[in-house]
Design brief:
single chain; 403 residues; mainly alpha; Receptor-associated Protein; three-stranded antiparallel beta sheet; 16 helices; 5% strand
């Protein structure tokens, strides 16, 4: 049986390393989770890599690449091409890179008689639990090409949402970076030369000018302290982020933030509804689907709630009743799920709910960016105006004294 090296976090947040025997990385991952560990990296024991990040040097497969590969695989299987030949064809036409290597390893496992889902499960860095479970359900139902087509659409939708967020944030981030750079240049090089004139005059300076001089001195002489403070803050955050309790508090705090909390909640609800609906539509059992959906939802507050929902489902409760007990799930979602349960179309109602929340998220992002851009312009104008007024006031005073 293969042996795998692992790096994981214990219940107390401390880092644990060791080895575990398992048939595949996926089995090793499940075994570590059952032992109360939170795996960070799992690689074969005979694979040599730098300490601390055993797999981080490999180039990750991007979401668009995975979506395109999934759609091509669905097209080939829909054309009655055998699975092995379809994977081999995709691997042959793929450009050199991580995805080509992954497809090569999947092809080798298929040649040994392994099923597609199990062959993909051995590549957890590329194929997630939800991906593998849907492929397994497609194999079992004989509708693999249909499941892959739906999975490709889901991945493309997720990539479209991500691109929209990145595009919306690009301009504000650029303005903040450029504005901050300009202010640091003014405070570190321009203002000190002008301030020298004021200090030599020994005149009483306005409060606003005194504040500007103090800030300029901090930037000019204490820049190294600012860098050290920033580095210490990043280091402290990374240490705290290893603790599950801190991550839970952070996720709760994000949900309570004005504007950001509402946006995050809409995005989380959309992901929850779409992933769960797609899993159920693919034939994945509801309890297993809840486990996978909980892992796909990155917010730990929601994960905790979904764990309670799963327990109620195991005891025979309904999904809508279990979700309705928690304020994190709005009445609209609960009502749509209840209607889906009564009509026998739960999967379709979950997909519709996911589309609705995604539409709300996109509309809210558009409105927020339309409001944020002029606010940033006003903020930069106010900052520059502060510097200008602080410099001009003493000059006006000197002119009055000369007259």
């Amino acid at each position: 049986m293969p042996t795998f090296r692992y790096s994981a976090y214990g219940k107390g947040g401390g880092e644990v390393t060791g080895t575990v025997e398992a048939d595949s990385p996926r089995v090793a991952l499940d075994r570590l989770k059952k032992d109360g560990l939170f795996p960070r990296e799992i690689v074969p024991a005979d694979e040599v890599a730098p300490k601390g990040h055993l797999t981080s040097l490999r180039r990750r497969v991007s979401l668009p690449e995975l979506a395109l590969m999934t759609r091509r695989l669905a097209t080939l299987l829909g054309s009655a091409v055998p699975v092995y030949e379809a994977v081999a064809t995709l691997g042959a036409q793929e450009r050199a890179g991580e995805l080509k290597n992954v497809l090569g390893r999947v092809r080798e496992r298929l040649a040994e008689g392994t099923g597609l889902a199990k062959a993909m499960a051995a590549e957890p860095r590329v194929f997630s639990d939800s991906y593998v479970s849907m492929v397994a359900a497609g194999e079992a139902s004989g509708a693999l090409e249909i499941v892959l087509e739906k999975l490709a659409e889901f991945l493309e939708d997720q990539d479209a949402v991500r691109n929209k967020v990145v595009t919306s944030l690009a301009y504000p981030i650029l303005m903040v970076v450029v504005g901050s750079g300009v202010m640091m240049f003014l405070l570190g090089f321009v203002v000190p030369k002008i301030v020298t004139i004021f200090e030599e005059s020994k005149a009483t300076l306005p409060l606003i000018t005194v504040v500007l001089i103090k800030v300029s001195h901090v930037v000019q002489k204490g820049w190294w302290a600012l860098l050290l403070l920033g580095a210490a803050t990043v280091f402290a955050y990374r240490r705290l982020a290893q603790r599950e309790e801190f991550r839970l508090r952070q996720d709760r705090f994000l949900l309570r933030l004005p504007l950001v909390g509402a946006l995050s909640q809409r995005l989380l609800l959309s992901r929850f509804a779409k992933v769960l609906g797609l899993l159920l539509m693919s034939g994945v059992p509801v309890i297993r689907a809840m486990d996978i959906t909980s892992a796909a939802v990155v917010n730990r507050q929601y994960r905790s709630c979904l764990a309670q929902v799963k327990e109620e489902l195991i005891e025979g409760g309904s999904l809508s009743a279990a979700l309705g007990k928690n304020s994190l799930f709005p009445p609209l979602l609960v009502h749509m799920i209840a209607v889906g349960e009564k009509s026998g179309e739960l999967e379709k109602m979950l997909t519709r709910a996911g589309d609705a929340f995604e539409g709300e998220f996109e509309a809210a992002v558009t409105r927020l960016m339309a409001l944020l851009e002029p606010l940033l312009v006003l903020g930069m104008g106010a900052t520059v105006g502060f510097v200008v007024v602080a410099v001009l006031l003493p000059i006006f005073q000197l002119n009055q004294l000369i007259k």
